[in-house]
From TrEMBL:
It holds the Pfam family HxlR. Keywords: DNA-binding, Transcription, Transcription regulation. Residues 18-121 form the HTH hxlR-type domain. Signal peptide: none annotated. This is DNA-binding HxlR family transcriptional regulator. Coiled coil: none annotated. It comes from Compostimonas suwonensis.
């Protein structure tokens, strides 16, 4: 998918290095903005966790989706996965330095949302009220 977007951007005259950056930014924001990533990062910000503990810490996530999301975060370098040769097997996940820097950035975003949530909710309500009174042609 990134290859197609990169080609489309280049066709529109965007320099290849800028197109590459746009593709990476879009992909990272898609990962960070998905339904589960931030909940997992928040749970791991308290320290390493086993799969079962993480599953209990993230309400509503299936084991399959947790495994899928953890693999993607390990692939991106945001988490490490440590498997211990024990019986029963033990696997722990932990934020990397990169993952901790993401957690700090998200904390700042959460602060911004908290400061501005009343304005955002008010703007949405105003927009929705305006849209409901607009007469639409048939």
């Amino acid at each position: 998918m990134g290859t197609q977007l990169r080609a489309e951007l280049t066709e529109r005259g965007i320099a290849p290095d800028c197109a590459d950056t746009i593709v990476v930014v879009r992909d990272v924001l898609a990962r960070v903005g998905d339904k589960w990533t931030m909940l997992i990062v928040a749970a791991l910000s308290e320290g390493p966790r086993r799969f079962t503990t993480l599953h209990a810490s993230v309400p509503g996530i299936s084991q399959r989706m947790l495994g899928h999301t953890l693999r993607a975060l390990v692939r991106d370098g945001l988490l490490t996965r440590a498997a211990y040769a024990e019986v029963p097997p033990r696997v722990e996940y932990e934020l990397t330095d990169l993952g901790r820097s993401l957690a700090r950035a998200v904390d700042q975003l959460v602060g911004w949302v908290t400061q501005n949530q009343d304005a955002i909710v008010g703007n949405r309500a105003g927009f929705d009220a305006e849209q409901s009174t607009v007469t639409r042609p048939r």
